[in-house]
Every structure is written in C-alpha cells, then in structure tokens.
Specification:
Blueprint (H helix, E strand, L loop, with lengths): L4 H70 L6 E2 L3 H14 L3 E7 L8 E10 L1 H12 L5 E11 L9 E13 L1
Amino acid sequence: MAYNPTKKSIILVILLSTATLLITLGVFLPTINYIKKTAKESYELRKFLEQKYEQSLRAHVSRKRLAEIKATIADFYPFLFKSGDELKLITYLENLALKHNLAQSIAGSNLDKISNNLISISLNLNGGYNDVLKYLNELETSDYFMNMEQLQISPVFPRGSDLPSGASLDLNLSLYVNQ
C-alpha cells in the first residue's frame, strides 16, 4: 500500500506526538513528582527546625529562670535547719524557754531519724501566761522556718483554788531540713 505524502505526514506527526507524549510522561512527570516530594520534605524539615528553635528558646528562658530561682533560694538557706545542727536547735529552744521563765521539756522528736527532710518536735512548757505568749512570739520571729502543727494552751490551777496560777503550752513543731 502506497501512502500518499499527506498520509505519511499525518502518520509522522502522530508518531512524533506519541513519542513526545511518552517522553513527557516518562521523564517530566517523575521529575515533577520528585520536586513535589522534595518541597513537602523541605516544608516538614522547616517545621521541625522551627519547633526545635522554639524549644531551644524555651530552654534558654528556663535556664535563666532557674538561675534566678537559685539566687532567690540562696536567701532562704539561713532560715532552714541544717542537718547536723540538732544541738544548736535544742540549745536555742532551751535558752528561749529560760529567757521567758518557762520550764520546758521535749516530749518527742525525730531528731535522730530525719524523714522526708522534715523534723518534728513536741514541746511541753509551763509558766506564766504572758511568758508563754512572749515565748510563742519570739519563736515565730526566730531565724528558723518553723511550722506549728499543733498548739494548745491550758490554764494551770493550783490545788484548792479556782484561779489559774499559770499556763501550760503543748506545742508540736516541724522544721524543714536542708541537707
């Protein structure tokens, strides 16, 4: 079959168009897909790096705040009881009782076995009512950070009298221990 030149030209154009289409589909489409994939990975990497940057900024701020907190805490160390100063504490409490004319006895404590960084002391004091109040006032304004867990003031009546002659103070204290 002989083809006339017009049909040959049309077949040639169709073959060239098909070849161009195959080349486009075979080369350009995978390249375009690869570019899209790379763009998506770049976007995800940028998001990840931005998150890491934000975390590093927060970490920097946290470290700065930590330094400020440590500086502030240093001001409180003189008010915390230090492990090993048990005798100093007992001497302070006894001298305070003597200063206010009170008879003091330690009913119980965990000075020998400190647990949870907390010391508990139970005191019994006897003396004049005003002296007991002065003792409490000075105890509250002492350098130690003390927590008064329980406080009970009772009048002391002498035998055969309806008038109190003094007061009895039962006091449970706790102190935070800096080890």
